[in-house]
Amino acid sequence: MIAKLKGLLDEIGEDWAIVDVQGVGYLVHCSAKTLIALGEVGEACTVHTDLQVSENDMRLLGFAESAERDWFRLLTTVQGVGSKVALAILSALSFDELRNACAGGDAATVARANGVGPKLASRIVNELKDKAGALPGGGMAGVPASAVSPAGGASADAVSALENLGFKPAVAAQAVARAQAELGEGAAEGDLIRVALKKAAG
């Protein structure tokens, strides 16, 4: 099984990246947080992976750190949670938010993720309440807090603005995260958009 890839970030899409390992391009499906953490196209990157094989598909999932992969594997043990839903949850919530939601039976927090309805969210927190505590909390190394918890605030509005201009969500999120790192946490929405546009276009 492929457990880790180390190479150059060759290309990035809405929910995937291609990692070039000595001339071989591996397509890995990733959460928004992992896409941000991977850095710029052309840079060296390391991706922890999980290979999923079904009757008619073989899919490689990529994670910026092993902790996210552990959460992914735990989430996909719940009936109705496939790889797409698990990545959506990991895109929307930090590890702390996810762990606290499971421990506290807070289905509404889990339901913030795209494609997760109230019924599925309730099943997730009920099934994982006794298991989630063993997994790490915190955010993700190299990812700004604004990117880990994108619901609300100037950064989220800036991402939305770039998406409305036609940029893909992952590209918009990356550009805004880099703009915020340059401008600081208190940056105004207009400044974030201006700098992010330059970074996205570049």
Short description:
By secondary structure, this protein is α+β, with helices and mostly antiparallel strands. 47% of the residues lie in helices and 18% in strands.
The structural class is alpha+beta
Overall helicity: 40-55%
End-to-end distance:
36 Å
Mean pLDDT: 83
Number of helices: 10
> How are the strands ordered across the major sheet?
3-2-1-4-5
Largest sheet: 5 strands, antiparallel
What shape does the CA trace take?
globular
Secondary-structure element string: EEEHEEHHHHHHHHH
Q: How many runs of DSSP E, i.e. beta strands?
A: 5
Low-confidence stretches: 144-152
- Proportion of strand residues: 15-25%
Write down the Rg. 17 Å
List the helices and strands and how they pair.
Layout: E1 4-12, E2 16-21, E3 24-29, H1 32-37, E4 44-53, E5 58-63, H2 66-75, H3 83-92, H4 95-104, H5 107-110, H6 118-128, H7 145-148, H8 153-164, H9 169-183, H10 189-201
Antiparallel strand pairs: 1-2, 1-4, 2-3, 4-5
Helix pairs in contact: 2-3, 4-6, 8-9, 8-10, 9-10
Explain this structure to me?
By secondary structure, the chain is of the alpha+beta class. Helices cover 47% and strands 18% of the residues. It contains ten helices and five strands. It has helices at 32-37, 66-75, 83-92, 95-104, 107-110, 118-128, 145-148, 153-164, 169-183, 189-201, and strands spanning 4-12, 16-21, 24-29, 44-53, 58-63. Helix 2 (66-75) crosses helix 3 (83-92), helix 8 (153-164) crosses helix 9 and helix 8 crosses helix 10.
